[in-house]
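INFO  loader      accepted 1 record
INFO  loader      residues=486
INFO  predictor   begin
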Amino acid sequence: MKKILFFSISILSFIIVSCKGNDPEVLKKTLSVTRDSLVYVIEGGTDTFTIRTNSSKWHIRSTAEWAKVSVDSGIDSKKQISVSVAPNTIKETRTAKLIITGLNSDSVFLKIVQITKSLNGTDYPNYSDSIPPNATGMNSTAVEIAAKIKAGINIGNTLEAIGSETAWGNPLITNDLIKTIKLNGFNAIRLPCSWNQYSNQTTAKINDSWLVRVKQVVQYCVDNDMYVILNIHWDGGWLENNCTLAKKSVNNAKQRAFWEQIATTLRDFDEHVLFASANEPNVSDATQMAVLLSYHQTFIDAVRSTGGKNAYRVLVVQGPSTDIATTNKLFTKLPTDKVPNRMMAEIHYYTPWNFTGMTKDETWGNQFYFWGVNYHSTTDTAHNPTWGEESEVDKLFTLMKTQFIYKGIPVVVGEYGASRRDNLTGDALKLHLASRAYYFKYVTKQAKANGLLPFFWDTGGMIDRRNYTILDQQALDGLIQGANGL
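INFO  predictor   done
INFO  writer      dumping tokens
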């Protein structure tokens, strides 16, 4: 019995050791934090970051008494941590770090910096790490790059989504998505992007992790020989909704701080990468236009100040509300750039809104389910277009050709598109979809014919961003036919 018992114990010990070697609890765990650094003014204050981990327990230790964390340990897989910093009485910049360690995970470090002055919203640190100009790979003028852009598309509702890249229902952008876009006839991508939500609201410092992520997506585009326009999109409206004298100083300071960081991070990309100052700045009069021009000037100066290839990069400035008629009226003077022939203007095209975006009939007018002189309904005449068809496209694009193209300033149609009205059925739906595809074809073709660069607005309805298949072949065919002048 003793021998049998010993043998049994030995077998049991072997089983325990073997199982322990594969026990998930002793395998390496992941642990990360959402901020790379926290920056405080001389008065101190409180800021936050979030721990994400699959470890069963974590600990936090501060290396300085003046920087205290709200909790020093926990078991949450996702936990927001507050870090409070005392006033700086030593009158010189001081630093500390938090050491965050999870059970069976590597430690991560978060840097804490406290500067020696107050920031009032117009006095952000200088983020311009200037280097000598570098013209390598930057030989093309704006007009020459415009000639190389055949068809563009937006990856919308993603990098600009408020909350996170996936907050509005789209998956993370992958290299396979960029490959799919290219295989289907596009050679240019517009990346709407948010920055303010990823920044320190006191210092305007953008999280390093977000800069790295955006750079990764831009790299996907460049690796696939795509041109890419990166902007500051709506971004919570801090600039877009505040082209006002009251916000001019504050917003110019943030515009400078953001673009110094964005431009520095992406400085080594060649001419395939273009920067755009804003998205749809809300401007309707000359006073607001003057403020918008100051924002554009700050953008240009900030990018150029970083040097390297940014000294020659093509930059895109938006017309007031990116509306053609308003742009034609108010955008009579461009900002100044010390580098000649490296500027483009941007407008958007959602005309007529009754067709492209209106969602219900109103007392002042009905929705348009159909578009184009050969696509009017004989049965639902109440939803036929009464304005904004082919002649309107021709007229408005000719305005931009006269105002900018003839003067050597390419024009980007940064967004255009039209809602798909799946509430329709039968012949009505069939006619609607055919007219919609024709709209895409006509607008794209006329943009190209007038020297404008079309970037279709897509939020995931045309290309399946998970399976990399085409969801709307009819619409895609219209776009590519238009881009090819068919």
